[in-house]
Automatic annotation (TrEMBL):
Name recorded for this polypeptide: HTH-type transcriptional regulator BetI
Protein source organism: Vibrio marinisediminis
UniProt pathway annotation: Amine and polyamine biosynthesis; betaine biosynthesis via choline pathway [regulation]
TM spans (from-to): none
InterPro entries reported in the protein's UniProt record: BetI_C (IPR039538), DNA-bd_HTH_TetR-type_CS (IPR023772), Homeodomain-like_sf (IPR009057), HTH_TetR (IPR001647), Tet_transcr_reg_TetR-rel_C_sf (IPR036271), Tscrpt_rep_BetI (IPR017757)
Amino acid sequence: MPKVGMPEIRKPQLVKATMAVIDRVGLHAASISLISKEAGVSTGIINHYFGGKHGLLEETMREILRQHSYSITTQLKQLPVDAHHQRINAIIDGNFVGFQAENQVVKTWLAFWSYSMHDVQLKRLQRVNEKRLLSHLKIELKALFATENISSEQADLVAHGIASLIDGIWLRGTLNPQGIEAEKARAIINDYLDKQITFYTQKL
């Protein structure tokens, strides 16, 4: 975490520089020297306010998570509370369009995703993001499934299914030269959701 007193103008500047360097040379080669040069600041500033590279990496991931959460919650606030299909699509879009689909952000996300398996703090942040996604999905799915007399336990299973599809499609998109196709992602996930609703209603 950055120390209290870190000039607000420096945070986005350093986060942007960190993502640019990761995009260019990868996470492991993204040294404090390269990041400070990219940002036009001294290495001492990064060490003073973030305690070194790891602290800056953590703040960069936090900023990506903040932007991700803001994008989804902003879209949800603009939709009626009972428009569950639309709200689920807003959650899906939040993972595939806008800030999250920018090339530098995608590469940084992918690097952190891999690195978090070996870093306790980054793993914790990744789990926070996972729980937030599942929470958004479960709220909408339980309300939607209730109108179809489908149980909340089944809604939980579908929420995990959609989250898995989001992760898988996102990962495939990052490794695809054409990038992430948000429209296709939405079509695949909605097809899965429709089939799940049909399956569970036919069992009633």
